[in-house]
Write a structure and sequence with these properties.
CATH superfamily: NAD(P)-binding Rossmann-like Domain
Radius of gyration: 18 Å
Order of helices and strands: EHEHEHEHEHEHHE
CATH topology: Rossmann fold
Number of domains: 1
Number of helices: 7
Shape: globular
CATH architecture: 3-Layer(aba) Sandwich
Strand content: 5-15%
Length: 259
C-alpha cells in the first residue's frame, strides 16, 4: 500500500449537509486528502460561515445552497455544479414518534430527505462518473439500518423512530442496488453505518447522565464515538485504493452491533 492510494488530488467532491456536524468532518477529511470540496445545504448563513472558516486552511472549499428534498433544486445544483468525482449523501434527519401514531406527513419528510434525495442526487451525478470511468458514491446510513435498537438501553428516550429505521434500511438497499448496476464502470457505491457519536446535534442527548452511561455500557469500547472517528472510513471508501470495494456497508460503532 502507498499513501497515493488515498490521494484525492484533482478530485471534486460534493458533501450534502456539509456545513456542520459530521458533514463538516467529512468535508475536512476530503480536503485533507487533496480534494476540492463543495458543501451544500439549505442555510446560506451556515454555509458561508463554514466556508469562511475552512478557507483559512484550504483553498478548495466552496458551497452551494440547495434543499436536496426539492427535485427542482437538485436539478439546478447538478447543472450549475457540473461533474463531480465523489458524492457524499450525508444530509439526514430523524423523527421521534411511536409506530402506531406516526403521521404520514412526517414519515414522508424523513423518507424524502434520507432516502429519495440520495437517489435523486445519484441519478444526476452517476452518468458523469460513468462517462469518466471513475467515481465514488458514499451514502451515510446508520446502525439503525442494519438492525433495531433495544429501547431499554435508552432511558428517558426510547427508540421510537419508525421512519428513520425504515429510511436507513432503505439507503443500504439502494446502495446495494446501485452498486450492482454500475459495477463494471469504475464507479463504486458504498455506505457508512455510524453508531453513536458526540456530534453537535447529539450534545444534549448524550450529556453526562443515565442515557450516556447506558449507551456507553452497552458498547464494547465503553464509550461513544468522537467527531473525528468517521474520517478514515470515509476516506477509505473515497480513495483510489478501494476500487474493488462496492455495495458494502462499513460499520463504525465501537463494536455496538457485535453483541
Amino acid at each position: 500500500m502507498a499513501l497515493t492510494d488515498f490521494d484525492l488530488t484533482n478530485r471534486r467532491a460534493l458533501v450534502t449537509g456539509g456545513s456542520d456536524g459530521l458533514g463538516r468532518q467529512f468535508a475536512e477529511a476530503l480536503l485533507d486528502a487533496g480534494a476540492d470540496v463543495v458543501i451544500c445545504g439549505r442555510r446560506k448563513d451556515s454555509l458561508d460561515s463554514t466556508v469562511s472558516e475552512l478557507a483559512e486552511r484550504y483553498s478548495g472549499i466552496s458551497s452551494m445552497v440547495c434543499d436536496v428534498t426539492d427535485q427542482d433544486q437538485v436539478s439546478k445544483l447538478a447543472i450549475e455544479l457540473g461533474g463531480i468525482d465523489i458524492l457524499v449523501n450525508n444530509a439526514g434527519l430523524s423523527h421521534r414518534a411511536k409506530w402506531d401514531v406516526e403521521q404520514s406527513e412526517e414519515w414522508r419528510k424523513i423518507m424524502i430527505l434520507n432516502l429519495e434525495a440520495p437517489f435523486w442526487l445519484s441519478q444526476k451525478f452517476l452518468p458523469g462518473m460513468i462517462g469518466k470511468g471513475w467515481g465514488r458514491i458514499i451514502n451515510i446510513a446508520s446502525i439503525c439500518g442494519i438492525g433495531s435498537l433495544d429501547p431499554r438501553l435508552f432511558p428517558g428516550l426510547g427508540a421510537d423512530m419508525p421512519s428513520y429505521f425504515a429510511s436507513k434500511h432503505g439507503i443500504i438497499g439502494l446502495t446495494k442496488f446501485l452498486s450492482s448496476q454500475v459495477g463494471e464502470t469504475g464507479v463504486t457505491v458504498n455506505a457508512i453505518c455510524p453508531g453513536f457519536f458526540d456530534s453537535p446535534a447529539n450534545h444534549e442527548v448524550f450529556k453526562p447522565g443515565p442515557l450516556l452511561d447506558s449507551v456507553s455500557g452497552a458498547t464494547p469500547m465503553r464509550r461513544i464515538g468522537t467527531n473525528t472517528e468517521l474520517r478514515t472510513a470515509l476516506l477509505y471508501l473515497a480513495a483510489p485504493g478501494s476500487s474493488f470495494v462496492t455495495g458494502q456497508s462499513i460499520v463504525v460503532d465501537g463494536g455496538w452491533s457485535i453483541w
